[in-house]
Amino acid sequence: MKQDELYGMEIILDLYGCDYKVITSRSALRNFVRRMCKLLDMKRFGKTLLPHFGHSDPKTSGYSMLQFIETSSITGHFSESKKSAYINIFSCRMFDAAKAINFTKKFFKAKKVKARTLIRK
Questions:
Q1: Band of residue 58 on the pLDDT scale cut at 50, 70, 90
Q2: Which of 96, 105, 90 has the alpha carbon at shortest distance from 18?
């Protein structure tokens, strides 16, 4: 399939056994977005949104992250009680999924990662 026939691609990452200090740090999560965008040559659009909420249930308590990029977005949800992270990177421009997956696993010091890559037409 030719590049011009594609709409884009998305990677979906479920990370388990993450470093608690990283997933609970607003500055670390902002740093993750900056570094990911640089790694994949993506241009950020606006500020990284990082609300901390979901406090009524320990499973959902934690940060959620949204960074618009010129070609779409990077999103994440973090469960403090489960020490897990759920990251989606979607772009209308193709990017190196393996690079993004490896960087994310290292950044969050995840013990286990489940990754899926989708091609959008």
A1: confident
A2: 105
